[in-house]
Amino acid sequence: MKKAITLLLALVMVLSLAACGGSTAAPATEAPKAETPAAPAATEAAPAEEGKVFNIYAWNEEFKGFFEKYYTVPEGITVNWIINPSDGGVYQDKLDEALLNQANVADDEKIDMFLAEADYILKYTDSEFTQDITALGVTDFSNTYAYTVQAASDSNGVVKGVSFQCCPSALIYRRSIAKDVLGTDDPAEVQAKLDSWDKFNAVAADAKAKGYYMTSSEAETFRVFSNNGTAPLVNDKGELVLDDAIKAWQAQAKDFSDKGYTLTCDIWSDECTAQMFADGKTMCYFGPAWYFNFCMGNAQDPEKGCMGDWAICQGPQAHFWGGTWLLAATGSDNPTMLADVMDTFINDEEVCSNLIKNEAQFTNNQAVNAKFAEDPNYGSEFLGGQNDVAVFVELAKNIKFENKTIYDQLLTEGLQGFWREYCDGAVTEEEAMANYYKYINEKYPEIVTP
Length: 450
Fold this sequence. Notes:
Elements: H1 3-13, E1 34-35, E2 53-58, H2 62-70, E3 78-83, H3 90-100, E4 111-117, H4 121-125, H5 146-151, E5 161-163, E6 168-174, H6 175-182, H7 187-193, H8 197-209, E7 213-215, H9 222-226, H10 244-259, H11 270-273, E8 282-287, H12 289-294, E9 310-313, E10 319-320, E11 324-328, H13 335-347, H14 349-357, H15 366-373, H16 388-395, H17 408-423, H18 429-443
Parallel strand pairs: 2-3, 2-4, 7-8
Antiparallel strand pairs: 1-3, 4-11, 5-11, 6-8, 6-9, 6-10
Helix pairs in contact: 10-17, 15-16, 17-18
């Protein structure tokens, strides 16, 4: 199928769900084009042929914060952030509409760069709506993680963007609860006690006996299972296929819910995140550096939080979750700045170091990560002094970008939502799956469901 047709169909059909995994996306109300405060002064002027407005589409302000702190905007250029929430598919809807209209708007209204996540990045990279960044001058990927380049490339290997972060995911556990349940909070010892699903499930029973939850949502482990599947959710015949790994998650989710090992709620719900406060009773969460740095705000609350009472280890299975890619929009009138932004966030050692030191990110620069991993004086305050970069350097070796489709975000979020109704006892298993298939048929009529 030709790339342009593939994306055009996808643009009409696909909606988006949450980023940062979910509800930490942009404000609940749509944010139309809103200019940022005046850009910082630059040391050199932009070339005369460059546009005067650099438009960036995003779904929350995470990268916006990093951009405004660490990138020097060329003199004479205004950066305009168009931020729409992911909830309900608003972000992709607005982005798709703008991309389809890119050739018909004035230069200063054209999208220059837009952000995308792993669950739907293929929709944009394998299309004519993104352009080859090597032709713009971004050619040094020597320090980036290979899967991030693969994810940002089209089916012919043409690179369309970069990610400023690498996202190996870990088991994030509460030290004080681990001590009570396991007798230790040492990451190596905790890993030994939780290095398989059989052990994890058995410890869940022990945690329950002591008055704790193993997880705060039945969906907390979904990404670990699904990321270790062996087949895409939609096969080459256009048929929905639930991998054995996903079926294993379904079984665990129901079992944990029935036995009271977990709360039954959305992972971004207030009920779930309230467990991150100091008085929470949940032992385990799963996520990358961006998750505990950007999405565990309750745990970091100066009055009700529990900074330092956390640690990480691999857990039952290695996996990765998410990531934010910067993609180059075809038709951008700011090619020089576009290339410079991308090159800065993967190759500028100072910027990448600041992302670790000041923002607790795990960057997409292996050399910088290695430097911090080997630094005996570096440690995360949130993790009680543990060197999370050293852990993630090892976990990153296991990342494979495989079995992805343009449908993944809605299919995975939908499955979790409809399965939760079964776990909660609101519907039967048959009803839950029938509702899921109906949802898919409405969103993606071309997908064949059972």
